[in-house]
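Limitations
The structure tokens in this dataset are predictions for the assembled complex, not deposited experimental models. Users should treat interface geometry with appropriate caution, especially where small molecules or nucleic acid strands are included. An illustrative entry is reproduced here so readers can see what is and is not provided.
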Amino acid sequence: MTPLLEIENLHVAYGKVEAVRGVSLRMLPGQIVTVIGPNGAGKTTLLAAAAGLLRSRGKVIYDGLNLERLDVEERVERGFCLVPERRELFGDMAVADNLLLGAYTRRRNGADVKQSLQQVFSRFPRLAERRRQKAQTLSGGERQMLALGRALMAKPRLLLLDEPSLGLAPIMVREIFRIVASLRDLGVSILLVEQNARAALETADYGYVLEMGAITHEGPAATLAHDPRVVVTYLGGSI
Amino acid sequence: MTRRAFYLPALVVLALLAAAPFFAASFTITLLNYIGIYALVALGVVILTGFGGLTSFGQAAFVGIAAYATAWLTTTQGASPWLGLIFGLALTVAVAAFLGAVTLRLGGHFLPLGTIAWGLSIFFLFGNLDALGRHNGISGMPPIFIGSISLEPTTAIYYLIWGVLAAATIVIANLLESREGRAIRSLRGGVVMVESLGISVFRIRLITFVIAAILAGFSGWLYAHMNRFVSPTPFDLRMGIQYLFMAILGGSGHILGAVVGAALITLLQNALQDVLPHFARNGEQLEVIVFAVIYVLALQFARGGVMPFALRFLPHRAWSSAIVPAAPLPRRTMPASGTPLLTVERLFKRFGGLEAVNQVGFAVNAGEIVGLIGPNGAGKSTVFNLITGVLPSDDGRIVFLGQDITRAGQRRIAEAGIARTFQHVKLRPSMSLIDNVLLGTYVRTRSGFIRGALRLDRAEEARARHEARRQLKRVGIDANPHDLAGNLPLGRQRILEVARALAADPALIILDEPAAGLSRPEKTVLADLLRSLRREGVTVLLVEHDVEFVMGLVDRIVVMDFGAKLVEGTPVAVRADPRVQEAYLGSVA
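Predicted assembly:
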């Protein structure tokens, strides 16, 4: 199978500091791939560079297409969407309007957008209840749902999720991972960055460990979850 | 600009400026005089807009007040220009304090709008008062004398103008690196965090506004006695806008941006007046258009102004990483372990139709770590906001150390000894780590504006810095204390907030999801830190979703659901409670 996303030898620098140093990774259509690693390893930077928000060196090939000349907007139009760590919602706008903005690239197809909105509302009933509320009045967990819902409105083929479980109650964490797994069943591929390494490896098909800006381990998620070094450092177990 | 070393280039520039009257043409000196006078006003705009985030279009009117005050006093009353200076500054301060008191509490667009109205009205006032010579203005002011030396020659007043400018630049630079100066710099971007540190946003804004007006006042006085003639036009709204653009074009984030901007615009204007008449009969109108184009281009492509470009070519200031020894700041006596510290009774808060917090009550004893948990949207952060005074409660009572703080407001609550972090990190990303933590020491230190401006605060400042470094080290992010806070990953930004809260030496520290975004080893470090705080007698109240983290750390847990208290008890009891499992933990606990 041809990979959906292929990152080759990616470098990202902030001034003189290289945050991502020669990262290569690939994912197949319909796969969930996770990147785990400590704070400051460069995970968020890696996602932002792949989405076109940061300048980088190296190749990002999506669906056989070199993304070098494509800006963020064009990537989104092709179904390549990032859900950032800080959520970046429009606080003064209603929940429903935040969602509709997610479908901005499909705005000419009204009926289709409406249907997507209904799908998001049925997936997140909490958002349906609060559809007219301003986004800034939502609680931390609800903002999370809204950010994910907004990304789904773009009908993504590839979702980049940065810490989707951040700030969520345990019961919601399970719900979010259930949703992530169900998105795969719809054919959406997901690149997942998570501090909750245990849940991430349980959900993902394949995993990478990023340390100091470089990949130090990789393998099928189930194998990584039993790798002694990963267990001790990221899963809190002992050998 | 304080971040870099300017020594060599600065010395060359200073030497050239000092020697200018000996080699430059008299017209050049006149231009330099204008640059100096404009730069003083622009310096006020830099501290007001660039650092304090307040926009004023009315600075030219403050220049005018002082200029007309000294003109009137010296011509009609025969007073010395030095009396004129005192009179002009007093009038400027009075007007600025009144205008500030009226508009600064309102926030938003009221200050810029207020200053536009003020700028327009003062122009018409000058132009229509008989005592001020209407549109003809006042002429014949005496020159300034220092002892028996007359400053009438252009080359003589040149030294006074640039001397005043140099002194003002140094004083403002000192101020910005002091306790109150950090408060000024923290004004940009949300006031909730600033008030939570015990800083009065209104007071800081008002004083900043008055400082900018004083600089404009000095400029007006110099202008009046240099030209020895005043009329309304140089003080109209158009000039007010021009001062704002000088600061922006030069670089409003840098003190020297004021001088650079004033120089650029003055020289450009001069050049255009030479060139444009060759192209069109109405050179003056063309000049306005050329400036408009420059402004638009600058705003489009160089928002930071010229200074950031210039700084790239200068060496960075080297920071010593050693912790300078200093006596520790005084600490509060912690309440005896086990005594009641915080009591929350029947707390109630409604948002529209939603009862966000409904009759919640619990108590926290000194030396405890208490966890507040519950599903997303249960009202936990709202409870924190009610306790710390960010939101007023609709009903109920909050008692801290025997003191009713229900209506006390954020600042007094901070002074009483409660420090907090925020669920959505509230830092100043463009300030360094250490400056962010130093903001936390505000409630423990006393140095005011004048001490800061004159560097009389150095002893206390050294102690505060020592404390800030100690807290950074304690939370484990002291490797690069002079890096910008915005460059930290999100998880470490939360830890930086913890350091800032600790720097306030609180009796109670309230943490909203401190472990979110931390890796497992980092969580262990955080848990150890919180345990060591408990040993020191600091009480901790925290919201956190990592069940293992909470259960292994806290003494007691309060569980909320749908705005109400569901259960309270020990971690073991709470974990076993079927209601908690259903609402929060999910089936497996």
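Some entries come with short summary sentences. For this one: Residues 493 and 509 of chain B are 17 Å apart (CA to CA).
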